[in-house]
Each structure stands twice: as C-alpha cells, then as structure tokens.
Amino acid sequence: MSATDSAATRLQALFEGHRLTPTQRRIAHSMVRRAADVPFLSSVELAELAGVSQPSVTRFAVALGFDGYPALRRHLREVVPAEPAPEAGSHNEYQQAVEAEIENLRHLAELLADPRPVREAGRVLAASRPLPVLGLRAAASQAYGFAYFAAKVHPDVRLLNEGGTMIQDRLDAAVRAGATALLCFALPRHPREVVDTLAYARGAGLTVVTVADSAFAPVAGHSDLLLPAAVGTGLAFDTACAPMLLGRVLLEAVCDGLPDAQARLEEFDAHAAARGLFVE
Fold first, then answer.
1. CA distance 143 to 160
2. Which residues contact 5 (CB under 8 A, 6 or more apart)?
3. How far does Cα 254 stand from its chain's mean position?
C-alpha cells in the first residue's frame, strides 16, 4: 500500500457518516485527491484548492466535529502519513496526466481490497430483469461500454444514454417490465438531469447503483450503492480510466450473479464464428 493510497483511504473514512452540503462535499473531494498534501495546507490554501471560500473550510471542519480548521489539520497530521514530494520538473504535462491516472488506478485497487460493495452491486444488478443502464453527457460512453458487454450475458439490458423528456417514460417501462435496479455512471460535470433521474428512479422503487468520480459527488444522496473511482483532471478534458475499469470489474461481478453467463458467452462466440463476425 502506498502512502498516498493509505492517506486517501483514511480521509474517506473520516468523512463517512457525515451529512455534508454540496460545498462541503467539494472540499472533501479535493482533500481526497490531494490526500498527501492536505495536512500541510492552510485553510486559505485548501479553500483555493477546492474553489470555495475560507469560511466554508472552517464550517466544513466544524461539521466533521472539530473546533475549527486548525484542529482538523492537527488530526490529519496524526492520522495521514506524509509522502515525499515528487521531484519537480521530472515529467512533462502529458506524463503528469498519465501518472495521475496511474495513481487513480492504485487508489481503486486499494478500495477493491474489500470486494463486498462490488459483489453486492453485482448481485443486485444481475437480479434486475430488465437492467436499465444510465449515463449522460461525459458518462454516456461509460454506460454504452457497460451495456454493450452486459448484453452478452444479461437477457435484457436497456441503455439510457440520451436525456430528454422520454427518459422517465423509459424508466417507467422498465419498472413495468420487472426492473428492480438501475446502474448509473456519473462523471463531472454532473448534469442536473442525472440527479433528477436518480431521484425519480428511487421514487419508482428501483435500487440505484452508481459508479461516480467521488463518494461525495452530487449523485451520492440519490444512490443506494455508490462505487467511487476518481477521474483525472490534468488535461483540458477529464480522463476516466478508473471509472471505466471499475465498470468492467462490476461487470465481472454481474457475471458471477448470472448462472448462465458462461453458456451465453459460448453461444455468442459460436454464432460469431458461424457468421464470420470477427477477423482473426
């Protein structure tokens, strides 16, 4: 376990169980992303990092049960291990983006050391017939990729990757057909429509499983099971290697919950070979 992985995990544990406002979730998310640095940041520096006001940082510390930010920082210095600073100038901006994604994957690997949340999510999704899969805007490709592969083993996968007034109609149709769960991929920037759709889905009786960039994402309050995987922010557009990989891990858990998954895959391979579908 690397120092940064351990620091991020301990910060996550510190925030769990607290009802945080959207601004406070933003601070928490920024702290997790810079876990090794935050014990040494002033309240002003943390505010700049999170893009919030300095009083918001103070209120955040109080919400966690501390007298103020200095008390929170003292606590962090005790429980979050320090990490040597990377050598300045050792990587160009493109390499730095790749290194950041590698770190996101390391953090994901640490979270998966406890496989129970993913296994539970896989069980819930495998039992839903049909299985609606939601992902809008930046998350549309994540939802499409999951649905493409899931359809090879699950008898009825319904992709919801375009918003609009029809989306609730399609959820209603899925519920009438027997759906019991919804899988959502939620990535920044988080569309309001996704939050509204998850609230509607839960109101319709669906169990919501969400793959999001953070446990403090705006969709957290509308998710029954939230699986976090950080995105990279070092380039002009976010990179989502960790959420994509988590989606494949979740797909594996779904396969484990479908007794006939292997038979369906073998049937698909036989049909593909008979049709000459792929160039070998």
1. 8
2. 106, 107, 109, 110
3. 17
C-alpha neighbours within 13 Å on the C-beta side of residue 47: 14
Three-state secondary structure call for residue 203:
helix
Other residues' Cβ atoms within 10 Å of the Cβ of residue 179 = 23
Pairwise CA distance, residues 55 & 74, whole Å: 18
H-only helix segments in 177-220: 192-203
> What confidence tens digit (pLDDT) does each residue in 178-208 have?
999 999 999 988 999 999 999 999 999 999 9
Length of the chain: 280
Question: Residue 252 pLDDT > 70, yes or no?
Answer: yes
Burial class of 189 by CB neighbour count within 10 A (0 to 12, 13 to 18, 19+): exposed
State the pTM of this model: 0.77
Give the model confidence (pLDDT) of 93-141 as tens digits.
888 889 889 988 998 999 999 999 999 999 999 999 999 999 999 999 9
User: Helix, strand or coil for residue 2?
Assistant: coil
Closest CA to 211 of 250, 170, 158, 254: 250
How many other β-carbons are positioned within 10 Å of the β-carbon of residue 73?
19
Residue written as token pair 């390499």? 95
